Amino acid sequence: MTSLSSSRTDRAGASGSEPIPSLRKIIHIDMDAFYAAVEQRDFPELRGKPVVVGGAPNSRGVVATCSYEARAFGIRSAMPAAQAYRLCPEAVFVRPRFDVYRAVSAQIRAILREFTDRVEAVSLDEAYLDVTASPFCQGSATRIAEEIKRRIRESTGLTASAGVSYNKFLAKIASDRDKPDGLCVITPEQGRTVIADLPIGAFHGIGKATEAKMLALGIRYGRDLERLPLATLIQHFGKAGEHYYRIARGIDERPVVPDRPRKSWGAETTFPVDLSDRDEMCEQLAKLAEGVLDKLSRHGLTARGLTVKVKYDNFELVTRGRTLDRPFRDVRDVVPHLADLLARTEAGRRKVRLLGVSFSVLENAQRPVILDLFTPD
């Protein structure tokens, strides 16, 4: 276990005169190289080898995840499979088995709910728990995290890393600090010190584009972010500036929300050869939209929001969307909007390697009331 109150990190108090934020006990559980670990568990011949789960090396697919042996070669999630192959030709490329991953995820989620009903599943392989009021392990969040890790290992044969802190942001940061099979605790007194030393690119929720903008403004670490007035951050980053202002001070009051509502359904595809014909792109988008609409219909849902996703041949990604005042009826109702949204991109003038469609603002098909549609296991 890594404790930031140990000699590895100074136990500095929060800087400034602001009080330490109200205390909660939040745990972030993150499975280690989840898909790849499941494959290595189920197929012993893969253990100890660099395993890449995702597209085939001669395809246009991407890496969903990879084993730690593969990461040693520089392979990372979302990397093109062809690039991963160039980095490690001896890697074993495996197609994803999402039905198996979902089943294992359900096992893990059941373990988490033994300790609290306040579990927010972020994805198949990670979740937040609020154990502030949990009576288990004499109320110690650290001991609860240790017990969760033990039970996951015994039940599934897999390892998980855990972060313990007083809010979601720092619990997430903590879970990344000692992987794999790690346990890291960030106390309330240490929160702002940890954030001050954190490179801005390591802030959860700050993507490459925002990172580049912050670096251009001289914001390299959390301490640089904390120095900026709220008005300046809002000027440069809009509403998100308020969030950055609070995070820089160790303040994150987002609750752990059980059964997080699913806000959209979508599908995407990467093409074997880049597309350059706009009509062909519209046809591909229509096929994707038809499949998603069929899935919505089976769940008794309609949608009023539509988003088109385009990834150009240089991997630049753009999205265009709109929301109607009435639900889409069928794919014929959607096609004109797909063509219009695509026309608002550079698709056709630039080659396209991936297209995607998603529907949002989900409503019950029988009565037009927006649903809290829970993400299925």
Automatic annotation (TrEMBL):
<keyword id="KW-0548">Nucleotidyltransferase</keyword>
<feature type="binding site">
    <location>
        <position position="30"/>
    </location>
    <ligand>
        <name>Mg(2+)</name>
    </ligand>
</feature>
<dbReference type="InterPro" id="IPR017961">
    <property type="entry name" value="DNA_pol_Y-fam_little_finger"/>
</dbReference>
<feature type="binding site">
    <location>
        <position position="125"/>
    </location>
    <ligand>
        <name>Mg(2+)</name>
    </ligand>
</feature>
<feature type="domain" description="UmuC">
    <location>
        <begin position="26"/>
        <end position="207"/>
    </location>
</feature>
<dbReference type="InterPro" id="IPR053848">
    <property type="entry name" value="IMS_HHH_1"/>
</dbReference>
<dbReference type="Pfam" id="PF21999">
    <property type="entry name" value="IMS_HHH_1"/>
</dbReference>
<keyword id="KW-0227">DNA damage</keyword>
<keyword id="KW-0238">DNA-binding</keyword>
<comment type="similarity">
    <text>Belongs to the DNA polymerase type-Y family.</text>
</comment>
<dbReference type="Pfam" id="PF11799">
    <property type="entry name" value="IMS_C"/>
</dbReference>
<feature type="site" description="Substrate discrimination">
    <location>
        <position position="35"/>
    </location>
</feature>
<keyword id="KW-0515">Mutator protein</keyword>
<comment type="subunit">
    <text>Monomer.</text>
</comment>
<dbReference type="InterPro" id="IPR022880">
    <property type="entry name" value="DNApol_IV"/>
</dbReference>
<dbReference type="InterPro" id="IPR043502">
    <property type="entry name" value="DNA/RNA_pol_sf"/>
</dbReference>
<keyword id="KW-0460">Magnesium</keyword>
<dbReference type="InterPro" id="IPR043128">
    <property type="entry name" value="Rev_trsase/Diguanyl_cyclase"/>
</dbReference>
<dbReference type="Pfam" id="PF00817">
    <property type="entry name" value="IMS"/>
</dbReference>
<dbReference type="InterPro" id="IPR036775">
    <property type="entry name" value="DNA_pol_Y-fam_lit_finger_sf"/>
</dbReference>
<keyword id="KW-0963">Cytoplasm</keyword>
<dbReference type="GO" id="GO:0003887">
    <property type="term" value="F:DNA-directed DNA polymerase activity"/>
</dbReference>
<feature type="active site">
    <location>
        <position position="126"/>
    </location>
</feature>
<dbReference type="InterPro" id="IPR001126">
    <property type="entry name" value="UmuC"/>
</dbReference>
<keyword id="KW-0239">DNA-directed DNA polymerase</keyword>
<keyword id="KW-0234">DNA repair</keyword>
<keyword id="KW-0808">Transferase</keyword>
<keyword id="KW-0479">Metal-binding</keyword>
<keyword id="KW-0235">DNA replication</keyword>
<protein>
    <recommendedName>
        <fullName>DNA polymerase IV</fullName>
        <ecNumber>2.7.7.7</ecNumber>
    </recommendedName>
</protein>
<dbReference type="InterPro" id="IPR050116">
    <property type="entry name" value="DNA_polymerase-Y"/>
</dbReference>
<comment type="function">
    <text>Poorly processive, error-prone DNA polymerase involved in untargeted mutagenesis. Copies undamaged DNA at stalled replication forks, which arise in vivo from mismatched or misaligned primer ends. These misaligned primers can be extended by PolIV. Exhibits no 3'-5' exonuclease (proofreading) activity. May be involved in translesional synthesis, in conjunction with the beta clamp from PolIII.</text>
</comment>
